Amino acid sequence: MRGMAGLFLMCGLCSVVYLPINKAKESHEQNLDNIGTVKKKEFELHVLKNRKFLVFCTANTLVMFGYYTPVIHIIKHCQQELKIPEQQSYILFTYLAGASVISRLVFCKLGDFQCVNRLFLYQVSVVIYGICVLLLPFVKTFNSLVVIHVVFGLMDGGAMGQFSLLILGCVGQRKVNQGCGYAMFSIGFGVGTGPPLAGYVADESGSYAMAFYLSGVVLIVGAAITLLMKFVKQPAVTEDLEEVKVQEIGLLIVEKVTVL
């Protein structure tokens, strides 16, 4: 898990400093008159000043804080509290992975329809995922755990399948590389701190129930924060006006008339 968190952090740092080779030139508006030329340069909004993106990153950090907690600690939970053998517990990941592959194909295709709101898919998937995490302490049989992990896999496609496209919608195509970088950084922070803290809570309380409760609540709160994206307003784009005076040059045209 530490390696995974470090990988996300490294990907985030690399994406933040990445610049494409064929970077598009900034557009300039030019107004010509008899006296000179006026150039207007529009400054694009930095991703860290994009309020919708900041709200999404904050929510996503909380989501990642509790997202991998059941995946990391479910084996010990099965061994210590449910008395399920370790080899049998590993089968749960097979069900989760299979459901995730299918759901990513379905939900990503579903998000292509104009009548479907990608943010709504993300919110619903995270909320259902969080509810399933809250139900884990009440599950006592292996078959019930299989059902829970199948739902985990299905909701994983609904949430993570919309992740990149939601970033694109927040920052636009020109800033999507930096947006993904900062988002990866937030994922790395959440993944690197959430599961270890959940393990500490489980060690102190003697049960994984409190850790699952906290993770489920954090997931639902993270999904609720994304509702603010519809209400935040972006600041107006500022313009820097540079006036360049150009001396008017008169061209004297002398016509030669040849008389035969």
UniProtKB/TrEMBL annotation:
Q: Which GO terms describe its molecular function?
A: transmembrane transporter activity
Q: Which sequence ranges are marked TM in the entry?
A: 6-21, 53-75, 87-107, 119-139, 145-168, 180-202, 208-229
Superkingdom of the organism of origin: Eukaryota
User: Which keywords accompany this UniProt record?
Assistant: Membrane, Transmembrane, Transmembrane helix
Keyword DNA repair in annotation: no
**Entry's InterPro entries?**
MFS, MFS_trans_sf, Proton-linked_MCT
Protein known as: Monocarboxylate transporter 10
Q: What is the lineage of its organism?
A: Eukaryota, Metazoa, Cnidaria, Anthozoa, Hexacorallia
